[in-house]
Amino acid sequence: MTRREIRNTILAVIAFAILPWLPFLKDSGYLMSLAIPIAMYTVLATSWALFSGPTHYISLATAAFYGVGAYVVAGGIGVVPYAVLVLLAGVAGAILAALVGLATLRLSGVYFVIFTLGLAEMVRQLVTWVQNNFTGSRGLYVLTDITERIIYWELLVLAALVYLIGWIVNRSRLGFAMRIIGNDELVAAHVGIHSARAKVILFVISGIFAAVVGAVMAPRFTYIEPSLAFSPELSFQVVIMALLGGVHRLWGPLVGVIPFTLLWEVIAASFPTQTVLLLGVAFLLIVYFIPQGVVGLIESLMRRAGIGRGSGDG
Amino acid sequence: MRRRSVLQLAIAGAFLGALSLNTAYAADAIKIGAVGPKTGPLAGGAAVTHWPNFKLWATQVNARGGLKMKGGKRRKVEIIEYDDRTNPGETIKAVERLATRDKADFIAAPYGTGLTLASAPVFAKHGYPQIAVAAITDKVPELTKRYPGIFFTLGNTTAFADSVVSILLKMRADGTIGSNVAMVNVADAFGIELAESARPIFKKAGFNIVYDKSYPLGTQDLSTIVKGAKATNPDAFVAWSYPPDTFGLTAQAKIENFKVKAFYTAVATAFPVYAGKFGKSIEGVLGAGGVNPDSPAMKAYRAAHKKITGKTADYWASPVTYAALQTLGQAIEAVGSTDRKAVTAYLKKGTFKTVMGTWKFNNQVIDQFWTVGQWQKGVFYGVTSTGASGAKPVVAKTGW
Amino acid sequence: MEILTIGLLLGATYALIAMGLNLQYGVARIMNLANGEMLVAGAFGAFWVFTAQKVSPYVALLFVVPAAFGLNWLIYRTLLRPLVRRAKNRGMLEVDSILATFGMSFVFVGIMLMAFGGDYFSYSYLAEPFVIFGSPYGLNKVVAFVAAAAICGLLYLGLNKTRTGMAIRAVAVDPAAAGLAGIDVPKMSTFAFALGGAVTAGGGIMLSTFLTLDASIGVVFTMKALIIVIMGGVGDVRGAIIASLILGLAETAVASLIDPGLTLAAAYLLFVLVLLFRPQGLFGRRPS
């Protein structure tokens, strides 16, 4: 293990040792209302980046998996134990992601992006139609005794999992293959890398995580409306936070999610009547002045301070 | 490149510093939090129903010096608003913010069923009463048990569907219409629930649903639906619809000259924009809600609403939102302090004089509410309710 | 017959929504996520003209369209050109433009919220029935159809029969090569972006005569436009036109013959199928 990897692992271990105790702080309600979205978006953005980072394909399908996960829980709650539902959600996400992944193999660039968006919307329309014609109000209410703390810990577990899997993938042949594919698909094909299989596997992994996150979050929202469960805004936010953080490091999305969420909170709290306007302005400022992403910013600062060395993987 | 990094650091620093931003409030004011959509899919409805009532109520209360506390002192009210962008995660955050950072004394319920239910646990956790208005659900008994501080004021799904059927029953008994009903619904939670609730009620009342279709949320072209409904020759047309489709369906019905004697569209029929857009064609259109516009309290309310906020109130949830605020104010005055536990207890057993009439919560629910209204001569009258007084007789729709 | 007419009218609506974005993305390579907000802004211009000034909303075309052209020109030069300059390749520009226009859409919604509030705005104009083959249709929709046909026709002719049009098409195919051929690429891109914005705002005016809108609804139109532009294939005006018509007809056919609840599902399915069999869209170029 390189020094960088050792350092990152120690930081991760410390973080995962401290974070679960957050709910026990006094007056933690406000903190939790921020910590939960941060944890959620970290899992979503990092798993998204597992696929989109190396391949440079921007997927806007996150909301489809998330919504499917939420619906699995909403549809089965009361009938099937919650833990089983979460697993089922993962399975559903995997199946859907496999189908989507296979469908998108011939697409590239902006066609891929909008295709995933259209596909996500199609899933939403189909699920809504089924609900309207068959299940009715079953699948709308998720009334459970699952507390915020439990959701938060579930998300932490998922975050640990996503980092673990990301680390394993990076070191594996799959990760090596993805990096070559990302640089030049033609070369990859010539070297004998089965790029289609690699792409689909990673897409499935990110789909599973998104679906499980949806399942975990369903009890928090109590009322699962199709328009809110499948909201395209979620897909866009995940993409943006991951891109702003930086998709070439495993911890990239994390440093995109945290400042982003905090910044939005500051703006929402301080400017209640012009929230959206200022969110947009802040957003534009970030895009223009931090083009290399937060990862790039941090690394260039570290370079200037003499810590660490140039580039390398982590 | 050095300047770029300094600038970046400066921006970062400014935002971190702003984290401790705190606004100054009038000394000793009672802080009332208000969360709701100013942007996002539900913003259009909230702009009419939700937001103006806070300004109206606060202005009126402060004009008379504030709410009267124990010992005779008066305290003004201060509304703290947040935009939740129709995102339940944001609603939860905003309620937490109001409870823990802003230390609001009371928090008004959000706008919309999904947002109200998502934030209910937070209200309950911090001990705030939640007088819900724009939240229609059939799980009221379960929810009131779970959240002892939640109150429902606008009714429930079954009562809603039931009332529309009862109006049609009345019209059928009078010989105005027959038994064929065309029913459509918007494919979102609200429409799905209402359609599902309505089907068995129609059947039991002896109605035939000759056209039963849904349409996706955000459909811009409703001509096929109206043509399809018209082709089945129904006596009544019922649409469990949201604002944009309410307008679209009505516009299309007008163009088709859809000759039904009973035409019902759900949300936004009672909005002033509806009357503005369709002019005289609205005569006879049935919609969700309704009020008794002739009562002196209602007349005063509508006049004050127009004067203080510059906007016209709707004929459904606007006065109910206002009534919820009146109720809160009266409960605070009755208890004489901002003790949330005492106020919640008082809400459960007290009697309140509101613009909607006398309110007394029965198991945290207002049983009497208007369910169906009808435009008659440019005013949206309540034609049926669950026990409210002043219902006007319903008239048949005679063309567009 | 009815299905055909309704479908074509709906297709015209979609064309009005998508043509502007087709220009902005096809030529200027800006995936403009704030497109829908421009449409809503144009629509509000028409609403204001009709309700406050009491004249035909089409009068708004006279000043909204040039204003939108100017505004989009400015936006491209000040906000988007820096992105174009610093992008090392097309992929980066697309990513950057998605991020930047996402922020822009928030800014526009915020400005519109401050300007005219969050309420729904709607009015009826030319809502009389216009009979085609025995069935009534809204006259305002027919007028919108005519306008859409005119706009598409003018764009097609302009792009194919004039020198400027040829230059624009050259930039759409390959900006680098076009630059080598002596075409002022930045100017053409700015022009195309501004023109796209003007077309969108004009489309908004036409649509406002029968749709109900509010400050936040832009995103619905942006998504539709994205689908249509990609389905039609980037860079060719005909693609967006054909895609709009196909979607309009398909949605109407599904609504009449199968189930209105499946209209959008069918539309997206069609979109998915087209891309599965032609990954470059209907009229798009095979990526090299």
Can you walk me through this structure?
The complex is a heterotrimer of chains A (314), B (400) and C (288). Chain A is mainly α and 314 residues long. Helix content of chain A is 76%, strand content 0%. Chain A has helices spanning 3-18, 29-55, 62-76, 82-103, 109-135, 148-171, 173-183, 185-190, 195-221, 226-229, 232-245, 252-270, 275-289, 293-305. In chain A, helix 3 crosses helix 9 (195-221), helix 11 packs across helix 12 and helix 12 runs antiparallel to helix 13. Chain A is globular, with a radius of gyration of 20 Å. The N and C termini of chain B lie far apart (69 Å). Chain B is built from 14 helices and 16 strands. Chain B has 400 residues and is of the alpha/beta class. In chain B, strand 13 (351-354) and strand 14 (357-360) form a beta hairpin. In chain B, strands 9-8-10-11-12-15-16 form a seven-stranded mixed beta sheet, with helices on both faces. In chain B, strands 4-1-5 form a three-stranded parallel beta sheet, sandwiched between helices. In chain B, strands 2-3 form a two-stranded antiparallel ribbon. The longest helix of chain B is centred in the last third of the chain and has 19 residues, at 317-335. Chain B has two domains: 26-156 and 294-370, Rossmann fold; 158-292 and 375-385, Response regulator (Rossmann fold). Chain C has 288 residues and is mainly alpha-helical. Chain C has one domain (2-231). In chain C, strand 1 (129-132) and strand 2 form a beta hairpin. Chains in contact: A-B, A-C, B-C.
> Structural class of the helix and strand makeup of chain B?
alpha/beta
CATH class of the largest domain in chain B: Alpha Beta
Query: What is the CATH topology of the largest domain in chain B?
Result: Rossmann fold
Percentage of residues assigned to helices of chain C? over 70%
Element-by-element helix/strand order of chain C: HHHHEEHHHHHHH
Q: List the total number of helices of chain B.
A: 14
Instruction: State the distance separating the first and last CA atoms of chain C.
Output: 42 Å
Assembly state (oligomeric):
heterotrimer
Order of helices and strands of chain B: HEHHEEEHEHEHEHEHEHEHEHEHHHEEEE
Radius of gyration of chain B: 23 Å
Q: What's the pLDDT, averaged over the residues of chain C?
A: 90
Mean pLDDT over all positions of chain B: 88
Count the strands of chain C? 2
Runs of chain B in which pLDDT lies below 50 for 5 or more consecutive residues are 15-25
What global shape of chain C is seen? globular
Walk across the major sheet of chain C and give the strand order.
1-2
How would you describe the shape of chain B?
Answer: elongated
CATH homologous superfamily label of the largest domain in chain B: Response regulator
Main sheet characteristics of chain C? 2 strands, antiparallel
